[in-house]
Amino acid sequence: MAMDTEVATDFEVVIGLEVHAQLLTKSKMFCTCSTDYANAAPNTHVCPVCMGMPGVLPVINQGAVAYTIMTALSLNCTIPEYSKFDRKNYPYPDLMKGYQISQYDIPLSKNGYLLIEYEGQARRIGIQQELGVKTEIKNMNSFRSVERALAYEAQRQVELLRAGIPIQQETRGWVETKGITVAQRSKEYAHDYRYFPEPDLPPLIINRAWVEELRAQLPELPDARRARYMDEYGLSAQDANVLTEEKALGDYFEQVVAASQASDRWTRAKAAANLVINDVVRLLKANSISVEESPLPPAASANLLDLLARGRITGRQGKEVLEEAFASGKMPETVVQEKGIEPPISDQGALERIIEEVITNNAKVVSDYRAGKTNALQYLIGQVMKQTRGQAKADSVRTILITKLDETPPA
Q1: Orientation angle between helical segments 62-74 and 208-216, nearest 10 degrees
Q2: Considering the domain boundaries, does residue 25 fall inside one?
Q3: Which residues pair with 222 in a beta bridge?
Q4: Rounded to an integer, what is the distance from CA 158 to the centroid of its chain?
Q5: Are residues 27 and 104 in the same domain?
Q6: Ranges of H-type helices in 233-314
Q7: Domain span holding position 114
Q8: How many domains does the chain have?
Q9: Over the stretch 300-334, which tens digit does the pLDDT of each residue have?
Q10: Which end of the chain, C or N, has fewer beta carbons within 10 A?
């Protein structure tokens, strides 16, 4: 995270993120109760195992273990051959059995890392077990709040250490209106949870062949996909980053490239990337829908690119066709036919005559351009496009206009 508030210190500031993620299993970790409880009535997806009733025994969900290992492999973790579960004791009144089955010292994975890009350079973010005294900050509801809270807390701890005051391990709350953190409660240490091996579950012996089977089931991960887009399609790092932020968006892009009829692969891919990033994503956001819900399938986007590549429509016409195709769900070629869109002007002489007429009728704007006001050029281009009803190619209009405007004006 880029922080515009620098903390001048000779101490190393270590910032960690505690990320909670739920595996998409159909049943819970240690019983057969359904995980589809989001909209269910309270306490309807529970059983004696969930509540830790006397005499019941939990059973390890193999699917959950597989998903955990696959996640760990995606994060470059090491998978040990031996793992176990531990009982973590909580004194909370809403936890009926008084403990949670967790993992303490021998988890299913360890020592992973995540590669990110920061200011054009690759950075490695370590995934490791907690070290030393720490404070947790809560109640932040925006990235700006996170940034401010981290800067404040780093400065607070530096001042305490310089004054010889030890840092207390605690949970602190962020007060947005005051721009400070305040103590909420002391943070437990491991011994406070009284960890011990879970007596009702056997240890796990993780077969190496099974780990490799799970590795083979992993989809192409974002880092690999990003590198492939740059190598195989010649995309810029920025475009490759955007297209790999979501798997569905990258899938859409590749389907557009595959469906397009353009012969040059790199040209086709770059055109598809520009269309998806600049236009399709814009329409999706404007309509608050995901790419999976898009009324414009990849084949339709490819069809639009082909119309542009063949010169059947201009870029300006293409934007109009795209809007209509997105709204109606029709193929762009069908939209062109139904709206009676004429092909671009191919008669160079006719286009030059229109441009000369525009120059003649806009003497003041022409004078402004020749005086150095280059934004006047865009106005003249717009006038030509208006005269041609969008049938002229904007790049051709620009080239001819500049050539004629830069000619020595008559005395």
Answers
A1: 70
A2: yes
A3: none
A4: 34
A5: yes
A6: 237-243, 247-259, 265-275, 281-286, 298-309
A7: 1-129+194-218
A8: 4
A9: 999 999 998 888 888 888 899 999 999 999 999 99
A10: C
